Q: What sequence folds into this?
């Protein structure tokens, strides 16, 4: 049997596959809403299409995580890439509500399929080569950096392409004639994302080797996936360290939803017009991705300085909560000084979240057996998305001003305080999720109330 890849090679391939997955997302973010409205969709229809994506991703999150644990990481990742490139092609060319709804369904399913398997592959590979005590933080940090870098680069390129192909541009006129108007300038970022998706699928199939698995049968999958999902959920409830990871993910989801909901309007008020506010928000979004990349890159250093992954997660989330508090405090004032403080707070939020993620997941992977690793990551992702959806509704119903920001800061601080008492790891390697007892520790400090 072929030996597992060495940790350095596994880190590079994990970072590459992460970059290739998130680059198409960055490409279509700036133009997605504009493309849909250009196709004649009202904002209400656009909101409904986004709801199709969100509901699909949430419903499919746990079953697809279980599927990755049963049939293998590479197969599920390749399937996610195929679905995503099909979704982007349909979104770029579709002109009816039903076609666009299909694109959102495919995209939501692809997002759910991709949630966890690549990271699970990396951890399995490194531990298979170096044992259960192998260093995971460095690779997890590189993956987080690659994700944020892909989103930053994609956002810049995806925002510039429609401008370069817009009215009055020779390239835009050539495009319109060549496609008989089927491909709009706003469609090009999504089509480029689909092309990157092809490269992603090829790379996954060629660069992510796995140990041989027994051939999957339909009966085995139907029996194995529910059992694996149940084991992963039980682990998230019973095991203190995993429970903290899940609850802090919910806090992060609430904070991110608050920021993403409130920042565009605040940018428009600051610049005085929606159009210039949109430009400012795009610049802020790119800055947020860069800050996340920097924070993620520094996650191993944060663990060394604080003495453990748990303390690093506490410190990093506290930094993010302080940044969100600055955004809340400055929401009631105008002028250059409050704007500068708000910009600093925005950067702190994303630097802290970037540093917290790899350290939290280092704790998670040391408490989770490989048979439910992707499922546990799906539980974490579901907590973030569900809490974010609810927090967005709450923040949107509150009066404008500091209050919604301060609520998000309070929830994020609660998530940080979950790590105030260090969990003592049990000796030996992780056991099967269904049999693993809770680690000896105190109770979880608080349950975070329900992006």
A:
């Amino acid at each position: 049997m072929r030996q597992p890849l060495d940790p350095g090679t596994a880190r590079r391939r994990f970072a590459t596959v992460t970059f290739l997955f998130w680059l198409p997302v960055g490409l279509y973010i700036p133009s997605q809403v504009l493309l849909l409205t250009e196709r004649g969709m009202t904002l209400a229809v656009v909101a409904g299409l986004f709801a199709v994506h969100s509901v699909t991703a949430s419903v499919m999150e746990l079953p697809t995580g279980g599927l990755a644990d049963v049939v293998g990481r590479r197969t599920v990742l390749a399937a996610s890439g195929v679905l995503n490139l099909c979704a982007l092609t349909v979104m770029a060319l579709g002109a009816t509500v039903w076609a666009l709804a299909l694109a959102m369904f495919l995209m939501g399913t692809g997002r759910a399929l991709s949630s966890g398997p690549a990271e699970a592959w990396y951890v399995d590979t490194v531990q298979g080569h170096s044992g259960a005590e192998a260093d995971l933080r460095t690779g997890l940090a590189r993956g987080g950096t690659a994700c944020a870098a892909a989103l930053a680069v994609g956002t810049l390129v995806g925002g510039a392409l429609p401008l370069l192909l817009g009215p009055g541009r020779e390239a835009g006129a050539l495009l319109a004639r060549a496609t008989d108007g089927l491909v709009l300038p706003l469609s090009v970022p999504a089509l480029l994302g689909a092309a990157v998706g092809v490269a992603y699928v090829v790379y996954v199939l060629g660069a992510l080797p796995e140990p041989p698995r027994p051939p999957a049968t339909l009966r085995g999958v139907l029996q194995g996936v529910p059992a694996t999902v149940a084991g992963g959920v039980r682990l998230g409830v019973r095991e203190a360290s995993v429970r903290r990871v899940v609850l802090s993910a919910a806090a992060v989801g609430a904070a991110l939803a608050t920021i993403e909901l409130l920042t565009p309007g605040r940018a428009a008020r600051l610049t005085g017009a929606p159009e210039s506010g949109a430009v400012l928000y795009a610049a802020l979004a790119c800055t947020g991705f860069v800050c996340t990349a920097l924070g993620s890159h520094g996650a191993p250093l944060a663990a060394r300085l604080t003495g453990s992954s748990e303390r690093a997660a506490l410190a990093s989330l506290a930094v993010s909560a302080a940044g969100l508090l600055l955004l809340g405090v400055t929401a009631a004032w105008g002028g250059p000084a409050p704007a500068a403080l708000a910009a600093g707070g925005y950067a702190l939020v994303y630097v802290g979240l970037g540093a917290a993620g790899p350290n939290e997941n280092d704790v998670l992977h040391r408490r989770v057996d490989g048979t439910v690793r992707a499922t546990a990551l799906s539980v974490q992702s579901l907590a973030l998305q569900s809490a974010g959806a609810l927090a967005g509704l709450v923040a949107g119903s509150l009066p404008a001003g500091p209050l919604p920001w301060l609520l998000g800061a309070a929830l994020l601080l609660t998530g940080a305080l979950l790590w105030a008492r260090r969990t003592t790891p049990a000796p030996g390697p992780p056991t099967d999720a269904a049999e693993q007892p809770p680690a000896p520790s105190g109770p979880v400090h608080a349950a975070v109330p329900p992006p």
